[in-house]
């Protein structure tokens, strides 16, 4: 039996593919390399460079391998871009997922683990956020992810496609081997930006707003180690293979850090100076996002053991110092 990983050459997908391979699974990756890196999927059993919207290719893949589950990462995921070009997000994320589900149905593939996001909640009513809290996305990206979750649920109701949607909070850190890590161009995520500034590859870190209603005025986020996220995908596949039914889980550490706290921690871990410049707020940023992941711990047996902020920054720093140009393919 094999697992199809869409977006397996991307940041979280490559770490999940690595974890699947580490436990002896056969891994088939489908990635169009629009943001991913071929090298990040080295070692995967099969690699297809192509698009999830190519239904003939999907049929060929499902026809060539005994795929019993799909893990679906492939998407566009830049919040700001989604506000200026929502059509791109509906086409790749929503229509792309429709193509995937249709070909799964046609080929009798009945299990999917889906990359959802904290962005489905929008501005939270309370923290920590629970899965039953109101979902009211504040940007087009989050809106497409919620639409994808719902579409998958309707395919379950009609065609029995069992699913687990995993709502990640802020993915960060790198594989302990130092072989794979985060490499986005342009980079928009705080942790890699802070470490690029520590390396001298950026003149400073721009803090987007220091007038939020938090202790130091900067936004608070829940950072979760990418390999802990990877573990949750394996547990979600196990749940589906046991036939325990569809579910939705938040994945976070349950602890929030402000932007200034992340920068301070990075100064400590790297011993480097990290200049900062305060800029205006970024549109659509909630002040505080922190997850309750009690359901994932209880029902999946998930144990995020690498998500203390020291381990997150240390593993990310090891990746950035060893690969100052990332994968070097852009
Ligand atoms: N990084 C985070 O903090 C975060 C948080 C919440 C949710 N997510 C979600 O997790 C998933 C992975 O995020 P990431 O940070 O690893 O992103 P990424 O951009 O590194 O990975 C996405 C991968 O999908 C591929 N891809 C995109 N569209 C495709 C298509 N049409 N066909 C084939 N391949 C395609 C890209 O080339 C890339 O390799 C995304 O769905 C994202 O929305 C990420
Ligand atoms: O140069 C920067 C970059 C970020 N930030 C701040 O740092 C925090 C974290 O920002 P990121 O861009 O790293 O992450 P987001 O919280 O915006 O986004 C993450 O969580 C979202 C859900 O809310 C989506 O899922 C998205 O894909 C995922 O990366 C935010 O307060 C942001 O304003 C800065 O101050 N300066």
Write the topology of this structure.
Layout: E1 2-6, H1 11-22, E2 26-31, E3 46-49, H2 55-64, E4 67-72, H3 79-84, H4 86-106, E5 111-117, H5 140-159, E6 162-168, E7 170-172, H6 190-198, E8 205-208, E9 220-221, E10 223-225, H7 226-241, E11 247-251, E12 257-258, H8 259-270, E13 276-279, H9 294-300, H10 309-322
Parallel strand pairs: 1-2, 1-4, 2-3, 4-5, 5-6, 6-11, 7-10, 8-13
Antiparallel strand pairs: 9-12
The structure holds nicotinamide-adenine-dinucleotide and galactose-uridine-5'-diphosphate (GDU).
Nicotinamide-adenine-dinucleotide binds next to helix 1, strand 2, helix 4, strand 5 and strand 7.
Pathway: Carbohydrate metabolism; galactose metabolism
Catalytic activity: UDP-alpha-D-glucose = UDP-alpha-D-galactose
Subunit structure: Homodimer.
Structure description:
- It catalyses: UDP-alpha-D-glucose = UDP-alpha-D-galactose.
- Pfam families: Epimerase.
- InterPro entries: Epimerase_deHydtase (IPR001509), NAD(P)-bd_dom_sf (IPR036291), UDP_G4E (IPR005886).
- With 330 residues, the chain is an alpha/beta fold.
- The chain has 2 domains: 2-171 and 224-251, NAD(P)-binding Rossmann-like Domain (Rossmann fold, 3-Layer(aba) Sandwich); 190-222 and 254-322, UDP-galactose 4-epimerase, domain 1.
- The protein has helices at residues 11-22, 55-64, 79-84, 86-106, 140-159, 190-198, 226-241, 259-270, 294-300, 309-322, and strands at 2-6, 26-31, 46-49, 67-72, 111-117, 162-168, 170-172, 205-208, 220-221, 223-225, 247-251, 257-258, 276-279.
- The protein has a 7-stranded parallel sheet with strand order 3-2-1-4-5-6-11, sandwiched between helices. A two-stranded parallel sheet has the order 7-10.
- Helix 2 packs parallel to helix 4 (86-106).
- It is globular.
- Bound molecules: nicotinamide-adenine-dinucleotide (NAD) and galactose-uridine-5'-diphosphate.
- Nicotinamide-adenine-dinucleotide (NAD) is lined by residues 6-7, 9-13, 30-36, 51-53, 73-75, 77, 92, 96, 115, 117, 168, 170-171.
- Residues 6-7, 9-13, 30-36, 51-53, 73-75, 77, 92, 96, 115, 117, 168, 170-171 line the site of nicotinamide-adenine-dinucleotide (NAD).
């Amino acid at each position: 039996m094999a697992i199809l990983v869409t977006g397996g050459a991307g940041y979280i997908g490559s770490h999940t593919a690595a974890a699947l391979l580490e436990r002896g699974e056969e891994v088939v990756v489908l990635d169009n390399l629009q943001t991913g890196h071929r090298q990040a999927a080295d070692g995967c059993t099969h690699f297809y460079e192509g698009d999830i919207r190519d239904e003939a290719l999907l049929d060929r893949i499902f026809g060539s391998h005994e795929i019993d589950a799909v893990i679906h990462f492939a998407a566009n995921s830049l919040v700001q871009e989604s506000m200026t070009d929502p059509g791109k997000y509906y086409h790749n994320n929503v229509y792309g997922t429709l193509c995937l589900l249709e070909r799964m149905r046609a080929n009798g593939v009945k299990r999917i683990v889906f990359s959802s996001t904290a962005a489905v909640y929008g501005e939270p009513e309370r923290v920590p956020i629970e899965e039953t809290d109101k979902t009211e996305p504040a940007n087009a990206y989050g809106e497409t992810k919620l639409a994808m979750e719902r579409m998958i649920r309707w395919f379950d109701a009609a065609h029995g496609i069992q699913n687990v949607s995993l709502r990640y909070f802020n993915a960060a850190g790198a594989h302990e081997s130092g072989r794979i890590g985060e490499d986005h161009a342009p980079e928009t995520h705080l942790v890699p930006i802070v470490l690029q500034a520590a390396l001298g590859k950026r003149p400073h870190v721009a803090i987007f707003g220091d007038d939020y209603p938090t202790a130091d005025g900067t936004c608070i986020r829940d950072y979760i180690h990418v390999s802990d996220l990877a573990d949750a995908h394996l547990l979600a596949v196990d749940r589906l293979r046991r036939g325990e039914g569809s579910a939705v889980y938040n994945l976070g550490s349950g602890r929030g850090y402000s932007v200034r706290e992340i920068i301070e921690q990075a100064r400590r871990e790297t011993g480097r100076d990290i200049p900062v410049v305060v800029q205006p707020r970024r549109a659509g940023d909630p002040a505080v996002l922190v997850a309750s992941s009690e359901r994932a711990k209880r029902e999946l047996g998930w144990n995020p053991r690498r998500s203390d902020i020291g381990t997150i920054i240390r593993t990310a720093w090891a990746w950035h110092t060893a690969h100052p140009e990332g994968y070097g393919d852009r």
